[in-house]
Amino acid sequence: MGKASFPRALPDNEAVAIARNLRVSPQKLNLLAQLIRGKKVSTALADLEFSRKRISLDVRKCLQSAIANAENNHDLDVDDLVVAQAFVGKALVMKRFHARARGRGARILKPFANITIVVREVAAAKA
């Protein structure tokens, strides 16, 4: 006697991937989320490949995971995928102290962030 299956939160033409605890501030990660939001996945992958930001490698891996989820788990066509949503959330913040002059200490905040990428299959425009 098993538990009833949990209903799927996303529509049938969408897939999601989440990267948690990335060692970057949410503000910096949001710059990359803005870069790929609304683009075709092939264009978004190319933009992340040639981005100079350090964290773009992890965002690219998350996008590739969302594409793989769409293809393998939901039988969506990879060529018709678009980045429907890309949003950033805060994770933990490590607090550290740095020695300063005259015996004082200064607080250093080392933030972590999460990114969620949702890809959607859109019908290809017949030209």
The outline comes out as flat
Beta-strand segment tally: 3
Percent helix:
25-40%
Q: CATH superfamily, called what?
A: Ribosomal protein L22/L17
Describe this entry's structure for a reader.
The longest helix has 17 residues, at 56-72. The chain has 127 residues and is α+β, with helices and mostly antiparallel strands. The protein has a 3-stranded antiparallel sheet with strand order 1-3-2, covered by helices on one side. It has one domain (14-121): Ribosomal protein L22/L17 (Ribosomal Protein L22, Chain A), CATH 3.90.470.10. Helix content is 29%, strand content 35%. GO terms for molecular function: rRNA binding; structural constituent of ribosome. One of its GO terms (cellular component) is cytosolic large ribosomal subunit.
Secondary-structure blueprint:
Blueprint (H helix, E strand, L loop, with lengths): L13 E9 L3 H11 L4 H9 L6 H17 L8 E19 L5 E17 L6
Helix pairs in contact: 2-3
Summary, kept brief:
The protein has about 130 residues and is of the alpha+beta class. The chain has three helices and three strands; from the N terminus they run βαααββ.
Characteristics:
3 helices; flat; 3 strands; 127 residues; 29% helix; alpha+beta; Ribosomal Protein L22, Chain A
